[in-house]
Design goal:
alpha/beta, Rossmann fold, 9 helices
């Protein structure tokens, strides 16, 4: 059985060096109501000002990610951000109009998966991401589920061209267990991430936060032994397994904890700050 250490319990497993640190946003950096703890903000900024490279790896779209990157001072030349659960990677550039350039956008044909899921969830709201613009939807999402611009179109238009992500939001009154429902329905050619019980994201096959992070790691020529990732939800599982040091937030569900090497305190108790402060002490020692 894998042993999950508490943060700071055993530092010897993480080699000394300048790490690549990947952070989820919701439930990790910020509370689910969007509040950013000053202690967490200070810890991120201090680590970013050290030898470490700090980057975001999130399910959020580009438009929903950039404001936080600016607030945290992470829009730095030569740095990256992974958005849309790995389908979109940004090359950050303070000199660019919007602070970034699209480094990579991976798309897939959404039509087969959408048709299958429509039969299972005929009442679901469907959205496809229009990178840097917002979302096209078959009906408006309830606030505040989707803060970005929404454009209502027909389902036929939604699936008319390749997209980086499709989101299903079940608005029925009955509870859904997407994990059970998706077993054996023949959903091929996509990767899926289940958020809350009523939220399902589809991405291109083989694409996850981990795939985006691995491409960045190679581009930056960082030794894999110096990779760190922190997250709290099912769409973080692959990146926690990818990292040399994967840390689950204290409120993470059991399957996310099982994928991690360590568990920190929950987001309400500044669990991320504990990880980053611990990491900073070791980065400083070899500076």
């Amino acid at each position: 059985m894998q042993h999950q250490a508490r943060v700071g319990e055993d530092s010897s497993r993480m080699p000394h060096g300048a790490p690549l640190v990947a952070l989820d946003i919701d439930g990790t950096i910020v509370h689910h109501d969007g509040w950013l703890s000053p202690r967490v903000a200070r810890a991120i900024q201090a680590l970013a000002d050290s030898q470490a490279t700090v980057m975001i790896a999130t399910g959020r779209s580009v438009l929903a990610t950039m404001p936080l990157l600016r607030e945290l001072g992470l829009v730095r030349a030569g740095w990256y951000a992974v958005c849309s659960n790995g389908a979109v990677t940004l090359a950050l550039d303070p000199g660019a109009k919007d602070g970034y350039r699209l480094h990579e956008v991976v798309t897939f044909d959404p039509k087969p998966a959408v048709r299958i899921l429509q039969r299972l969830l005929p009442e679901a709201i469907i959205a496809v991401e229009d990178v840097g613009v917002g979302f096209k939807v078959n009906r408006l999402f309830p606030e505040p589920d989707l803060a970005e611009r929404q454009t209502v179109v027909t389902v036929e238009e939604l699936v008319s061209k390749p997209v980086p992500r499709v989101t299903f939001r079940d608005v029925s009154d009955r509870p859904q267990d997407f994990s059970t429902m998706l077993d054996g329905i023949g959903l091929h050619g996509v990767n899926y991430a289940i958020g809350f019980s009523s939220w399902l994201d589809l991405a291109p096959e083989g694409i996850s936060k981990a795939s985006g992070l691995e491409a960045v790691r190679e581009a930056l020529d960082v030794d894999h032994a110096h990779t760190v990732a922190v997250g709290d939800q099912r769409n973080d599982i692959e990146m926690l397994q990818w990292a040399a040091r994967g840390v689950a937030m204290g409120q993470a569900p059991p399957e996310v904890v099982a994928a991690a090497d360590e568990v920190t305190a929950d987001v309400a108790r500044d669990g991320l700050a504990l990880v980053l402060e611990d990491l900073l002490t070791r980065v400083d020692r070899v500076a």
